[in-house]
Amino acid sequence: MDFTSPAFWLAVGQIVLIDILLGGDNAVVIALAVRKLDPAKRRQGIVWGTVGAIGLRILLIVFALSLLSVPYLKLVGAVLLFWIGIKLLLPEEEDAHGNIASSDRLWVAVRTVIIADLVMSIDNVIAIAGAAQAAGGEHEIPLVVFGLLVSVPIIIWGSQLIIRLMDRFPIIITLGGMLLGWIAGGMMVTDPAVTEHVAPWQPHIKWIAEAAGAVLVLLVGSIAARRMRSRAAARNPAPPAGH
After folding, report:
1. Residue 95 has what pLDDT?
2. Residues 97-148: pLDDT tens digits?
3. Is 243 a domain residue?
4. Mutual angle of helices 171-189 and 140-168, in 10-degree steps
5. With contact defined as beta carbons under 8 Å apart, do 134 and 203 qualify?
6. What's this model's pTM, rounded to 2 decimal places?
7. Dihedral of the CA atoms 74, 12, 152, 156 (nearest 10)?
8. Which residue of 47, 180, 197, 237 has the smallest Cβ count within 10 Å?
9. Quick check: is 94 in a domain?
C-alpha cells in the first residue's frame, strides 16, 4: 500500500464515510445489546462484539470482492447501491431498533451484537467492496481492512457527535447518498459484461456514469422523501390553531 498516494487516502475516506453513514446504527445496537451487563463487563461486551462484527464484515467483503469479477454481478450490486443511496435520503422510521434484545450474560450480548451487525451490514459490504475495487487496485483487501479499522473508533466513541453533526448539517447525509450513487455508476460501466462495449470511450464514460449515478440518487431520493413527508402530513394533520 502506498500511504502517500492521494488515491489511497481518497478510497480510505470513502470507506470511512460509507461505514459511518451506513453503520452509524452499530453504536446503537451495541448500547442496546450490552445495557443489562454489569458495568465491569459492559466494556468487554462492546470490545468483543465490535471485534467479532468487524472480523465477520471483512470476511463478507473479501467474498463480495471476488464475486464482483463475475459478469453481471456488478450490475446487480450497482442497482442495490442505487437503492441504498436513495433509502439513505428518506425519512427514518421510528423505533427501528425495538427488536434488539439485551442480556445480562456477556457472550450472549456479544453474540447479539455480531448477529445484528451481520443482518444490518449487507449494505455496508456492497458499498465498501465497490469503493475498494474502484480505487484499490491490487491492494483491495488491505485497503478495506485499514478503512474499517479507522472507522471503528469513530463509530464507537464518536457516534453521538456524528449524529449531532448529521442532524445539524443534513448535507452530510445527502453527500453520502450521492457518493453511493457515484460508486454505483462506476460499477455499472466496469462490469465485465459491459466493459467491452464501452471500451472505446473509457475513461470518460466512467466519469459520466459516476456523475449521472450521483445525480440520479439525489433526484429520486429527494422526490421520494418529499412524497413520504406529504403522505405523513396527510395522515397526521396539524391541529387547528388555538387547540
Report:
1. 46
2. 444 555 567 777 777 767 766 666 666 777 777 777 766 555 677 777 777 7
3. no
4. 150
5. no
6. 0.69
7. -100
8. 237
9. yes
